[in-house]
Every structure is written in C-alpha cells, then in structure tokens.
Amino acid sequence: MPILPIDSGRYGTVEMCEIFDERRRLQFMLDVEAALALAHAEVGNIPQSDADTIAASVEKVRLERVKAIEKEIKHDVMAMVRALAEASGSSGAYVHLGATSSDILDTATALQLKEALKLIEEKLNMLEKTLIEKAERYKNAVIIGRTHGQHALPTTLGFKFAVWMREIARHIQRLRQCRERVLVGKMSGAVGTQAGLGEHAPKIQELVMRKLGLKPAEISTQIVQRDRHAELVCLFAIIASTLDNFATEIRELQRPEIAELFEPFEKARQVGSSTMPHKRNPITCERICGLAKVMRSLVLPALENIPTWHERDLTQSSAERFIIPEACILLDYMLMLMTKIIANLYVDEERMLKNLDITHGRVMSEAVMIALTRKGMSRQEAHELLRRLSLKSEIENKAFKTVLFENETVRKFLSEEEIDEALKPESYLGTAIQQVERIVKMTKQEREARGLRD
User: Fold this and answer.
1) I need a surface site. Which of 27, 172, 226, 297 has the fewest CB within 10 A?
2) How far is it, in rounded angstroms, from Cα 278 to Cα 154?
3) CA-to-CA distance for 390 and 423, rounded, in angstroms?
4) Measured between alpha carbons, how far is residue 134 from residues 29, 233, 337, 422 in Å?
5) Active site residue 273
6) Given 8, 49, 75, 273, which residue is catalytic?
7) Looking at the domain that runs over 1-97, which CATH code has it been given?
8) How far apart are CA 107 and CA 213, in angstroms?
9) What pLDDT, in 10s, does the model give residues 108-165?
10) Candidates 148, 274, 278, 310; catalytic one
11) Whole-angstrom distance, CA of residue 197 vs CA of residue 163
C-alpha cells in the first residue's frame, strides 16, 4: 500500500524511481556477487565454470524468495546470498567468498548512484540549455531590477536568466567533481583488511570494480566512509536551494501587482482554486520550494552518518535507506519541473515596460547623478541633490522628469535633451547585454567540452 508521495507516484520520474526500486536494488547486489565470483576465477581462486554458473544464476534469483529467507534469518544480505547459492547449485559454495555484507551493499549503492547521477546531470544539462535559450531571447528585454524588494535600476530579463544559467553551470561542475569521490566500491571484507580474500585481494577488488565500471575506494574499513555520501547530499541540497531561488523569483513576479512572469497554466483544463475560479496559482513553483525544504532536511542525517563506532556500525544504514533514494528522486523531479517551467514561461514584456514607470522615472536617479558628475558636479553633491529631488517627486506625486526640469541646478548642468536621454531605461543598461552574450558564449564552449552538441 503506497504511503509516501514518492510511492504513490505523485513525485518522481519513472526513470529515477526505477533505479531505487527494490527489485532493481536486488539486481545491483547480485551483479556485485557475480563480479566477485568472476574475479575469483580470474585470479585462480575458484573454477571458471563455477564462476560462470554464479554469474548466470543472478537472473534466476527472485525477490520473493530473498524476502522469505530474510523473514526467517533476519539478515538481508545473507538472505540474498542464500537465494543465489540455491540458484547456483553446487557452484553456490563459492558465492560471497571472502566478502562482507558492506562490500555488496556499498558497491551496489555506488552502482545505483552511477545511474542516478547520469540522469541528474542530463537534467542539469537540459536546464542549462533552456536558460541559454531564454538568456539569448530576452537579452534586450528591459525589466526593472529590484533590491530589498524595491525598484532599483533597469536590467534585462536575459541578464537574469544568464545569472541563473551560470549557477546551474557551477552545479554541473560540482557534480562532475563530486562523482569522482562518490562512485567508488569496495571489496575488502570485514574491517577492511581483505584477509578473507587471500593473497590476490587487491587484484580481486580491482577486477570487481573494473567489471562494474566503478573506482575502488583507495582504502576503507568495513564500510565506505560516509563523507562521500554526505558531500553528495549536501550538493543536492545546494542545487535544490538554487531551484528554490528560481521558483521564488517566478512566484514573486507572478503576483498580480507585478505580473511580469507566469509559470505555465493549462487554460483549457487546469483549476486554480477549489472555491475561487479566477485563481492562477504558481503551484509548480511552490511545489519546488516545498520539496527544497525536504532536500535541505536530508543534510543533517547525511552528516550524522559520517561518525561510526570503530571500523563500522549500522547507525548509517537505516538513515541512508531513506535519504539516498529520496535525495536522488526528489532532485531529479525538481529539475524536471523547473526545466518545464522555464521552457514554457509566459513573459509579459508590455507589463515589464509599464512597471518600469511605477516610480514615475525615479529609478533613473543614478543615471541623472552620473550625467551631472560628467558635467563637473561632485558626486556627493549630485547624490544629495538627486535624493532631495526624488523625495520631492514622490511627496508631490510629480513625474521625476518634471521635477528635474524645474530645478535650476540641474538645468544649469544638463539640457532638456540630456535629461531626456538620462531618463531612458534602455540607455542605462551598462554592459548587461554584452555580459549576457559573453556568458552565453562561455557556457556553450563548456558544453562543447563536455561533449554536448545543441
């Protein structure tokens, strides 16, 4: 009976959930056992025919049989070992030779993460590509920049998207670097000394990991040290917080008082409220913000999994059965949602231009101040003058342009044409457009270096 929303199918993509399905998890464990048997044969520890039989038998082991054995003996790995030994006939005598449970569990986890990180990087790449497209499309679209929630200076919507794009680009770099430390397996036996594997132990570990496409841990105790997994979960929480940031900005800009950006809404069928028919709620962005809270909550148990008693204990086991699948499934899902939102974002450029004039031109006070300093007025004197004139415009509800025209000091330094020019938002964008173009080019080059062809 499904209980959690991941189990019920409410959250999560099919591809990612399949990686953490219990049947798939069992198959990963069996794959490790098969690789171990083949490695033993390669170094001459067991007959090749027995190793081949074990490797072929992993397809015959059924989850139901493993669960039945586990119910009896209360040990999940040993239940798998017994089921595989049964399926392997006389060759079953060599199943799990020299290994300990954590060799199988930790290496199987690395196999799961290998596939999970591939999906997550693909989605990060897609989100990055979508942001490139939006940055290019809206690089000239003027929008008011806001600081402290207040109108500040003009910028462009493309500039906003370019900033987001580089944040995602950094996450891709982090993920690729982190992968090198996370995707490791081990075959070192109890307490990590490899005593049970015999004289060819290092070679066996190397062969097993080569067959599975993993790196061997440089050294480990009975478990792979959990700083690796903690780093990954912390990174996932950072990425989730970035998505939270994007979603929060879209939610703010969708408010009716602003109404510049809107997340996709299926006008033909989608219902905004059970009682208010007019509502068009940013529910997908809100879902991302909510799930980001869950993602950040996974950091604490991931960090607390690092301390263990001596060469191992099981305090991390129960916690990571939750946090590793949950972190991968939720982040993958959040990335999918955000990419769809950005790709289908509704942009009201007319409203963006209208909102630029909410302060009746006062947002251009810095531009006027700079114009005055270029004509010889000191910067501090110009700042104080523009501060007073901005207040006058607000208090008297006068257009800033009118207040400037009426001021003798301003008119002493600036002509009407120069004042008009200083008050044009599109004339005070600095290097915004050039920055977008430069950063888009840089990101495209990085994508090419990663082997992506858009």
Assistant:
1) 297
2) 32
3) 13
4) 43, 29, 16, 28
5) yes
6) 273
7) 1.10.275.10
8) 11
9) 999 999 999 999 999 999 999 999 999 999 999 999 999 999 999 999 999 999 999 9
10) 148
11) 52
